[in-house]
Amino acid sequence: MFFTIYQIIRTARPRQWLKNLSLFAAPLFTGMILSGHTLDLAIKAFVAFCALSSGAYLVNDIIDAPKDRLHPIKKNRPIASGTLSAGLAFSVAMVLVFGALIGSTVYIGTFYTLALIAYVLIQLSYSLYFRNVIILDSLVVASGFVLRVFAGGLATNTSVSSWLGLTTIGVSLLLAFGKRRSEKTIMSKYALEQKQGETRSTLRHYPDNLLDSMMSISAAYTIISYSMFVFQIAPQRISVELSNYLPSILKSPRWMMLTIPFVIYGVARYLYVVYEKGEGESPERILLSDRPLLLAVVLWGLVTFGIMFFLPYVG
After folding, report:
1. What are the extents of the domains in the chain?
2. What is the pLDDT averaged over residues 149-169?
């Protein structure tokens, strides 16, 4: 019993829930995240999306099981290895998916529910078709990240600025193409080129130069769009007490631009992890295992929160 529950939890991928933290982006950058009603809605939206995404992963593993058995790492997944039956996995997936949709309709709102349905359709279309189409497979993966940010805005009735949307697109593309680059590295490492077409046909058609170019473009795009984003949203008001101790040139600066170095380092570190450490297939695993990258993300979060919610009132 406990072994079966453990296998279900493994397949549900709770570590992937880190991606769903992007649901908090819209209320955070509009300065409304600490509002009781907004925070309550954001947390409910997070729980619903976690349940939905776990259900989608269960269905995805059922569909991918035959090909996963040919993969050097994915062959150890519970469904592919036979430690979890496909029937039980499908039943749990339906409970999670429909539970999330019903819960979001009752406790959050119709627009957010529509966003969840869109996510399900994206995942199904990816598993059944787009994963076999070069370039489009990465774009569809990236769209899932973008959808999360806009879903957070729908759930909390907060706006998503154009530059936040563009920044999200840049990060999403970087992670998606980095995932493909790392998958090619893994396949080469295990010397499975002769079976590569069976495990993931698109990998054979992805030239290394194409993936490298797309990652470089996405990295530059992310840094530029984020810089423009924080330039526009940086709070201009600081407390009177603090302004008395600052020189005139620092009394109304774009304080959020102080977070740009953390983003530049984070992007560079991610590229290092993909190219030098041969990792990147699982962004959430990188975040939890690579301490410099994790530290950069934590410091970015602390500085951002301090500037948005502490600086205007300190003193």
Report:
1. 1-160
2. 93
How many Cα atoms occupy the beta-carbon half-sphere of 311 within 13 Å? 23
Contacts 24+ apart (CB under 8 A), 298-302: 299/262, 300/259, 300/262, 300/263, 300/266
Show Cβ contacts of residue 124 under 8 Å, excluding neighbours closer than 6 positions: 59
Higher-pLDDT residue of 3, 150: 150
- Write the CA distances from 190 to 77, 112, 179, 207, 210, integer angstroms: 17, 42, 17, 18, 22
Class of domain 1-160: mainly alpha
Asked if residues 308 and 28 have their Cβ atoms less than 8 Å apart, the reply is yes
CA dihedral 258, 155, 121, 22 (to 10 degrees): 20
- Reported as a single tens digit per residue, the pLDDT across 264-277 is 999 999 999 988 87
What one-character-per-residue DSSP string does 250-296 give?
Answer: GSS--GGGGGHHHHHHHHHHHHHHHHHS---S-HHHHHHH-HHHHHH
